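Hey team,

Filing this mostly as a record. A colleague (T.K.) asked me to run one chain through the structure pipeline before their review meeting, and I want the input and output archived in the tracker in case anyone asks later how it was produced. No errors, nothing strange. Just documentation.

Input sequence:
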Amino acid sequence: MSPFPFQLLSPLGLSRALRQGPSGGLRIRFSVAFAGVAALVAVLVGGLGYDSAASMIRRDRTNDFVDSLNSLKSSVQGSSLTPDTFLPSKGSSNDLRDSLIQSGDIGIQVLNSAGAVVESADAGNTDVVLPVSREDVSYARMRGAGRTHNVLEVTKGSHYRVVTVSLGGGRGAVQLSQLLSDTDQLLQALLHRIAELAGLVVLLAGASGWWLAGRITRRLVTLTGAAEHVASTGQLDVDVPRRGADEIGRLGRAFDDMLGRLARSKDDQRRLVQDAGHELRTPLTSLRTNIAALPRLDQLPPESRDGLLEDLATETRELTVLVNELVELAADRREAEEPTEVDLKALAERVADLARRRTGREILVVARPFLVTGRPQALQRALSNLVENAAKFATGDSQILLTVDAGRVAVLDRGPGIDEADLDRVFNRFYRATKARSLPGSGLGLSIVREVAESHGGRAFAHNRPGGGAEIGFTLRTDAVEPSPGSVPPSKATTRAERKVLATRRPANRTKG
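Output structure:
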């Protein structure tokens, strides 16, 4: 279970989260990022707020003190006042005294002509007598009225702002005081409150980052686990999250499609190996039998000896063709070939010319120049397979027709045609129709035609001709070829259930007859 976000503040909680792997690491990064941003914002806002509040409070209190000081100086300079003027009157109010201390945080202390304290009422109402310095005494004896002397006093642990104002004529002085400790305590309390609020904001931001990271990384963690499972076990039937239109959803769908293609490729590879083993068994058995007769070759009649050697040559050729086609299918060489512009008419004429020299048959090409983007060697192999297949089945001296109509290529012959039951299976690997089992061939030629067509965005087709014979060919997508070599069309993408079937399926053995 993941540690609670607040526990990440401790080194033990951090190390425990990091040991939990990618999920904990990402969530910690999100939490720290959110907390860091929140801390920065809280410090900026809190600092600005505290500075503004402190400035406002100090300015207001200073203004109150200055107003009282100016009022006192005006009164002293306007008339001859004595210390008795500032003493509280019994049973009546003292307007001047009351106006000076009306703000509540200002105190007054009266000095006589000798500098002694006559009356003291401090701002905190604690009956604290402010200390009187020699300079304060000199102001009490000063002849001029309204002269001021400013000091900051610390008395019994409290801070005071003190201004001594001379009454003039040596009659004494009045000291106005303002308690600053209350303001300092208020601002200190405000600072603590702002710090507590900032800490709470940081913790909430970290918790929000932890929760949000869990929501964001949940599918990513699942996807990582699936990838690690595939890497460690090789099993492709894993559950991959595909939901969501964001980048993680797209990554999940791409990874799921990739697993589907891998499952299909693995299944194709397994079927190819098993089918190849079965198909190779027949010619190898025949070769073994004929080779076993070679020690008695001199004892055989001439006709038997010639037949044996001819069989060996024929079987060797068939085995060579089969091995070459198997190698091409297994290595998939055409995928390494870069697409380029191909003139189908020129390609058809080149293939027909080679087939004429090899088979001695008449091959007519009916085509117009038409350019497609494709892989030249793969297209030439597909055309050659079609023509050689037609030459194998064409009867007598019948003509073979090779047509190119835009992106459609077809080879027509006048042979026995194809049984209706075989039309859907002639492009399967190693499939050989009943009529073809006595003829040379591997059963791979037309399957290569189909794969070349599909890799170029088209499809292979086969049907019988009216009057006898067959028409076999393929179509091409004329705008582009398959962009990703070896990729499987979307229609062939597999689900997890299909991948599980592919991972456990064993193809049935095929009989060549």
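Quick notes for T.K.: The CA atoms of residues 53 and 187 lie 8 Å apart. Confidence is low (pLDDT under 50) at residues 1-23, 480-494, 505-513.
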